[in-house]
Each structure stands twice: as structure tokens, then as C-alpha cells.
User: What shape does this take?
Amino acid sequence: MRKVLVLAGKEFRGFLRMPLGYALLGVYALVAGMVLVTLLYMFHDQLLRVAQQAPMARAAPPVVDVQISVVTPYLLNAAALLVFVVPFLTMRSLAEEKRSRSLEVLVAYPLSAWQIVVGKFLGVYAFCLLMLLISLGHLAVLTHVSNPEAPALWVGYLGLLLLAAALVAMGLFVSSLATGQVEAAVLTLGLFLVLVMGGELAGPGAGAWQSVMRTLSPLGLYQPFGRGMLPWDGLLALVAASVFFVALTLRGVDLLKWRG
Amino acid sequence: MGLLRCLGPARGEFALPRPVWPTKLLDRPDGGYLEGEMELHDGQATQAAVGAQADSPMASSPLLDVRGLSREFGPVKAVDGLTFTVQEGEIVGLLGPNGAGKTTAMRMLVGYLVPTSGSVRIGGGDVFRDGARIKGLLGYLPENIPLYGEMTVQEYLQMVACLKGLSGDAARGEIDRAVAMLGLADMWRRPTSQLSRGYRQRVGLAQCLLTDPRLLILDEPATGLDPNQIAEFRAQLRTWRSRKAILLSTHILAEALMLCDRVLILSRGRLAAAGTPQGLMGPDTGPLSTQVTVRGGKGDPLAGLAGGVKLEARREAATGGGDEAVWHLSGPLDRPARVALVRHLAVGGWEIVEWNTGLSALEQVFRRLTLEEGTERSG
Assistant: This one.
């Protein structure tokens, strides 16, 4: 386990030594922050409109809920941002090691393939956690200006943690197959977008293939979390996806020995 | 004198030694051979040679034992039936032109590539089945010295020490030893991305040497080094030789000549020849010996040679015919001796047609083996 943590630490520190790491942290924090500010302004405008129309309205004024108007859209957008950012985190994890031949040196150490793969997964995931930790600052602003439901917020963030793990595992798998960083990034982003769009195109229909497409969509699995609900099937699906793709990556690394 | 060993159906029988000359490179031996002679190989002969060697009661168990190693990439056979051993206390050079299969072979030796057939045993264990146990015996450095540019030398070596199973005082001791041996103290806190090629190679060697492995596998370790660095590198290898088995690949013949106890010449994935550099070049050549072709004079060209130059000469009829004769001169031939010899030949009316040093002789052998192997394959 010590070797796994050393590899994870090396991977994590690597992001902090590169401009790419800071760029991704900045982009995520900035874009998510801009989304929050925009939603807060829209929520404020909505409140003003309701307040102005209330004396003249015959029926009860509509309920303007911060959870529905701000928190849920913010969390869903934060999840969508992960889909675009994670490919750039995972692209160099294995593809660059193969290209530079440093993977050969790692294989020549008394290390097993699972130690290499799990170490890389934990390192990249730790950097994702840092990204999400920074975005907790947005929640501090939100709780200062409004009164969101705390349990719903934490469920939403739990969902982001699980979603990040699944996306990192998928990105790691693609990186194990790619021959270079750029190829890995493009293929990973393409895979994510196909799965997400597939879930959107499936729509709310009850057919079998629609159900499968929605299940395969990372954002589709996250949606209940964003609404403040804890779906046990969604939780298990995201955990299973993480484990599945880490196992596939392990297989991919083993297959390298056969493919060359 | 070396031990007599024998190839043939009845292992353990002794046969008369066969003389081997450079002009008989294409003969296929089926008899005995002397240590130091060059062997020509096809797959079967090589297997028998290893088998005989391994079965001999006088042979110690090799640290690296490669048998019938092959690797195919689709229709291309990158390595074909490679068989050799490396003992502790020797440096073995893997020579070959670009594309000969050296790097592919090394990747299989360290367990990065699975061979299509054959086996690799290090310290008696299979590199794929017993990997975790035997990889502690191994230090490996690929050609391009892949380091992690974002890490300092200190961080990199500390990481490698941990990955190799070292911790605490043991790790610190090994790192200090490697740093002192390779002169890395001044570069300790520098990012590896800022190091020169020479220092990158030193850091690469340092990571190899942590845990003091018994077997070093180095892929083109001198590539990109300047002459001073190459000399330093050779000196380092010589200090490690007594305690380690070293396999290095190179296409620099001078390096093989000066450094290696044995040389394996690879051509298009196959072992074209194996033996000592002296055996490859022939009995009258060596790093300090010279092959001179002269014509035009009469009698012995060395008669009356003064200046204290002591050479052994052997005359051989030149292939060109006429009065051209090939004289093989062996012995120390430093600069004053060369000057004296040239002056003497000129005074005696001898024309110098060709002048080859030991290195040129090895180069000729290399070219003949690797180019003809290609011709046979394509013909």
C-alpha cells in the first residue's frame, strides 16, 4: 500500500508542478463561480418580480425556492464541468508514461500492475478532490446570501465526488489505450460526450434502450444527487463504474505486455 | 588457456579445437570450439551451445538465462530464437544495427513485453511468473533515460527507493551511496528537466543501482554522451563488473571493444554471432594490433626494423594476387612505433595499401554479419 501512496503522491504533486494543473483548477473555479453568480442574479430578479406582482395577484404567489433555482442548477453545471475537465487530468496518466518509456522502468521495479494503476487513479482523483474542495468556497458564498438546505447540498457534493471517481477511472482506461496525451484527451472527451448526449437523446421514454442510455450517462446518474436526493442505485452505479474501469485499465496495462 | 567445450550429439565428449579465421565466417560449425572463438549461430546450434554450457560441471549458474526468445508483431519477427546467458562478473554487449531487435529483446528481459516463445530467467526465477521476487535483482535503464521532469533529483530517487521496497535508513543509505558514486550531490535539488544529458544519465544509473542489483540491463547507455562522459561511464562500469552481471546494448563498436567481455551480434532479430571481441576479430587482431597490407618490396618488410619496435608478423597471400602480400602485425603499436614502421616501409620500397586497426577489423566483422544476414533473409 505504501508504494501505491507514493505513486499517488507523485501523480498529485506532478499536477501542482505544472501550469496545466493550475489552469484546470482556475478554469473550474472560475467557470463554476460564474455559473453561481449568474444563477444568483437570476434568482434575485425572480424574487423581485414575484414581490412586485404579489399585491396584484389573485392567486398565491409562486414559491421561489433557492434549492430549485440556484443549488440544483449549480450542482448540475458543476457536474457538467467535470465532464470537460477530467479528460485533461487523465490524459497524461498512462499515455505519457508509455510514450516516454517511463512505464518500462516502472514495470522493471518490484511493482505489480494493480499498484501502478491504483496509484495513478488515486493521484488523479486526489487532484479532482482539490478542485471540488476549492469550489466549496462557492457554497460559502451561497450560504451567506441565501438559505439552502444543508443536507441537499452535501448529497449534491457526495454525488460530485462519486461522479469524479467514475470519470477519472474512465479517463485512465482510455489513457491506457492511447498512444499519446492529445489522443487520450480527445478520445476521453469524445467518450464522455457520447454517453452524455446519448442519455439526453434517450429522453424520458420507458423503452429498454432509453433506459440503458440513461444509465450509461454520467450526468444522468448524477441528476438525482443534484436535486438533493440520495439514489442508492445511482450511488452503486457510480461506484461500480469506478471499480469496473479501474479493472479494465489494469487489463489494458497487462495487455500492453502482449501488444507491445 | 580457456576450457575446451564441445557441441554435438554426445555432450561432454571433447573434440579437437577448430581454428577460426575471419575469412571462414560463413562456415557452420558442428564441432568443438575454444573459449574466445567466435561462434556462428543458427537457432539449433545456439540451443546446443547453451545446453552444453549449462550442463558442464564447470559452468556456474548464469544470472541471466535467455532461451529461444522470440517476439512477433503480426507478420514481423522482431526477435527470433535468441539464446544467451550472462554471468556475474562479466559485461556482455548486445550489438546490432538500428532495428536489429535489441530494444525489443531488452523489453522482454525486464518483463515489459511478453515473448511469443522462449523464456527469460533471472537468478533462477522466471521474469513473468516470479516477477515480484526477482525484479529486486534487476536494474534497468532504457535508451532515452525517462525521468519525471517535474521532480527534483532528490524526490525522484526517494520515490524510486520506496518503489524498490526500501525505507528509512536503508533507503537513505542506498541513495547516499548512489549519489556519492555518481557525483550527484550538486544536482540534488534540481528538477530533472533542467539536467544535461550526462547528468540525466547519472540519475538514470542511480535509480538502477538502488538496492545494489546483481543484474544491470542498459539500453544504449552511452548515446548522446560526450567523450569525457563516455570515459567516465566506462570507468564506472568497470568498477561494477566484479559484483554484477551487466548487459548493455550498443551500436558503438569502440565501446563494445573496450568494455565488453563478450559480444552478441544481433541482426534482424537473430543472433548472428557471439563471442569475445578478440574471437570475433580473429587471433591476430585486438585493440592495439594492426593489419597492414603492403606491396612492392622484397623479402620480409620488417627486416631491419629499428627503434625498439617489437612486432609479431604473419604473412598471408593477398586476395588480389600478384606480389601483394598481407602482413598481420600484432603487438603494442603506439605512436612512435607507427611512425617508425611507416618510415621503415617507405625506405624499403614497400607501398602501404591498407592499414586497419583492431577496431576496423571488428567493424568489418559487424558489417559482414549484419549485411549478409539481411541478404540471406531477403534472398
